[in-house]
Automatic annotation (TrEMBL):
Keywords: Ribonucleoprotein, Ribosomal protein, RNA-binding, rRNA-binding. This is Small ribosomal subunit protein uS5. The lineage of its organism: Bacteria, Pseudomonadati, Pseudomonadota, Alphaproteobacteria, Sphingomonadales. The gene is rpsE. Residues 8-21 have a biased composition (Low complexity). HAMAP family: Ribosomal_uS5_B. The keyword Ribosomal protein applies.
Length: 234
């Protein structure tokens, strides 16, 4: 009997230890899964950070066009805030505008800038400095005329329209605003004129022709038309 007791005691002592080892393995397994999950969340955070860095790496021209104090009548009085109108462009043919309201001026500008970045459009430029052709745009009571100009003309525009063309990257243009001087309507009318801009290359693709064929209709020879087509830089 003494021998049997001495034999049974190590076996009884090993059982709790085995259960502890099994429990430890279970805890380690859960810990490993937690670590893997943590790494996954970290990777998603890193991807978001890389996207933010890429967006911030793009150099954009931001111009504050107009800022106005606004008020909202609530129970107990009026609540004052600010409305900002911002134009954003990359100086290489892309431009957008946005407007937003906030209780403070910096916050309103930040919100308007973020809105402008989401609504940027691309405009075809001739030689990277002017428009391909004349155009008109209107919104409400605002009407604008835009005209292409030779090199050295500069930006002949005032107020909100100048901010749009400077952000767009246009160096030579002649504009005229007819009607309202409301900056919101002027900006929208200007964008209406810019969205109607087309390039000879896009027109040729749409009609299934060559750019030289379109340029040769003005009486120019084939050699001159081909040279002009090669000289077009969008």
């Amino acid at each position: 009997m003494a021998d049997e007791n001495t034999i049974e005691q190590p076996v009884a002592a090993e059982a709790p230890q085995a259960e502890a080892n099994e429990g430890g393995r279970g805890r380690r397994g859960r810990g490993e899964r937690g670590e893997r999950g943590g790494r996954g969340r970290g990777d998603r955070g890193d991807r978001r950070g890389r996207r933010d860095d890429e967006e911030q790496g793009e150099e954009l021209i931001e111009k504050l066009v107009h800022i106005n104090r606004v008020s909202k009548t609530v129970k107990g009085g009026k609540r004052f805030g600010f409305a900002a109108l911002v134009v954003v462009g990359d100086g290489k043919g892309r431009v957008g505008f946005g407007h937003a309201k906030a209780r403070e001026v910096p916050e309103a500008i930040t919100k308007a800038t973020a809105s402008a970045k989401k609504k940027m459009i691309r405009v075809a430029l001739k030689e990277g400095r002017t428009l391909h052709h004349d155009g008109k745009g209107h919104f409400g009571a605002g009407r604008v005329n835009v005209r292409t100009a030779p090199a050295g003309t500069g930006i002949i525009a005032g107020g909100p329209m100048r901010a749009v063309f400077e952000s767009l990257g246009v160096a030579d243009v002649v504009t005229k605003s007819v009607g309202t001087s409301n900056p919101y309507n002027m900006i929208r009318a200007t964008f209406d004129a810019l969205t109607s801009q087309t390039s000879p290359k896009s027109v040729a693709q749409r009609r299934g022709k060559k750019v030289a064929d379109l340029l040769g209709r003005g009486g120019a020879s084939e050699v001159e038309a081909e040279a002009a087509a090669e000289a077009i830089v969008e």
